[in-house]
Automatic annotation (TrEMBL), chains A, B, C, D:
<dbReference type="InterPro" id="IPR003736">
    <property type="entry name" value="PAAI_dom"/>
</dbReference>
<dbReference type="Pfam" id="PF03061">
    <property type="entry name" value="4HBT"/>
</dbReference>
<keyword id="KW-0378">Hydrolase</keyword>
<dbReference type="InterPro" id="IPR029069">
    <property type="entry name" value="HotDog_dom_sf"/>
</dbReference>
<dbReference type="GO" id="GO:0047617">
    <property type="term" value="F:fatty acyl-CoA hydrolase activity"/>
</dbReference>
<feature type="domain" description="Thioesterase">
    <location>
        <begin position="63"/>
        <end position="137"/>
    </location>
</feature>
<dbReference type="InterPro" id="IPR006683">
    <property type="entry name" value="Thioestr_dom"/>
</dbReference>
<comment type="similarity">
    <text>Belongs to the thioesterase PaaI family.</text>
</comment>
<protein>
    <recommendedName>
        <fullName>Thioesterase domain-containing protein</fullName>
    </recommendedName>
</protein>
<dbReference type="InterPro" id="IPR039298">
    <property type="entry name" value="ACOT13"/>
</dbReference>
Length: 154, 154, 154, 154
């Protein structure tokens, strides 16, 4: 790609109409694009399993489930594995990492499993795995480290 | 949080109207939510710098720039650092990792810099840093490893 | 710590006698310090479990099992999970990451489990977990991404 | 490799003589194998640069600088970038990640640079890069996240 094409690729905002449409999106809409369609199958203290049918809106330029959408699920579903342990503890992300192993396509059913590996006084670590619902094949696996705090004590 | 609240948090789809609105979003809309508003400041072979004013649609539940949006930028802007080297080589993500260091708020100007650390025959590694435009303070830093291939030779 | 102490900490080579002793160590001795004492408990295609009694030589300045020794095990035992699948395929590390969750002390029995999550044509991903043998508590979990190649075809 | 060979590879302890030699190594000897020969070239608050001539003892089975030795340097030299800021704060590793980009060979001069990216009240993040001294080519880059605490207040 020449440099001008790279610039166009990143600044790909379309017509003025499209731009104002996107700019009119409500606060936190980015997250809503992921959670809409997410179904919780199992929830236990420290463990959450969800399913989702890959919607076209979450595809990337190669027509596969976006790696950034996978990262969102590692963040979001991972965090709920901590919430599921009860208490008033919340937290902020320290680190997220993801290994990508397979592609997921539009309308494919995927399963997301988050497991709390460690919940200490100040740090929690969660593992999150995305699998093809039909075959169990791993699409991606990530880990999410959070710094925990009780907001009232900050 | 009790288990029922965690379920509601993840399945937070609102009214039926809202659901059909979201389901009507065009293909790849998730990525468009990020690229709309992204401005390329500098582009050189192996290096890309963009700026963005944090839009409310990319905030998380705590009203700060979403960690998943950061991951999207590490993916997207990181990839263009490879494109900027020319050639017909594209690739797939092998691994993405991100350390989160500071919060960015609505309407704050952020700078995203991607640098190709290594472009070998089969693997490329890119570093991506998000900074506060005003102070230069690091918001997050990530690395993105890609497996490169020339599609016609697959 | 003042800057001079930091320098001393890093260059801590002791007497001349000690230095020549260390410099006389045989090639690859670093790895031998880890593998000596490692016992393979189970080996199946794509899965390897080892145990080790933490030796004093692998402790860090705080008298706990060295984080770098954990990284060595993620590298080494992770690689054998690929070897255990047979074939002549070898590979080089693309990325290794480790989350540290608990300390292990001298003479403590630890268990190291490596599982191949994905073995594709060019990339393999392995998960490696270190646990306390007695309680099963996780000490650390890591992932290891390798680029695979058949040497004769390079 | 067949399963029996994998087992032998991991349990490669040699003769009884060799085993007792290794078991007689002093406490923390693993770290000494790395620090011996490490030379501090520059030390500033938040930044440390060292050089090292790759000794045969730190090679792996393929006769290149061991990926686990790289991890040790990310841990050790990364930590000193925090020490170099003064104060009595120490810390424990939360996460270490490393991307491997090039090989280093016996007797090659390598440069290790650690930079504190962020030092907050509870979490610090350090970037560590290994380069070939002669060409500046990156061998590996990693990040090290630490949880900071003042021991007396624990």
């Amino acid at each position: 790609m020449d440099l001008e094409s790279v610039k166009r690729y990143l600044e790909k905002g379309g017509s003025e109409n499209e731009s104002s449409f996107i700019d009119s999106m409500p606060p936190k809409f980015f997250e809503t694009l992921i959670t809409q369609g997410l179904h919780v199958d199992l929830i236990q203290p420290g463990r959450v399993i969800c399913t989702m049918k890959v919607p076209p809106r979450l595809l990337n330029a190669d027509n596969v489930f976006h790696g950034g959408a996978t990262a969102m699920l590692v963040d979001l579903v991972g965090t709920t594995a901590i919430y599921s342990l009860g208490g008033s503890v919340t937290g902020v992300s320290v680190e997220i990492n993801i290994s990508y192993m397979d592609a997921a396509y539009a309308d494919e059913e995927i399963e997301i499993e988050a497991k709390a590996l460690h919940v200490g006084k100040v740090v929690a670590v969660i593992s999150v795995e995305l699998r093809k619902k039909k075959t169990g094949k791993i699409i991606a696996q990530g880990r999410h480290s959070k710094y925990l705090y009780v907001p009232s004590k900050m």
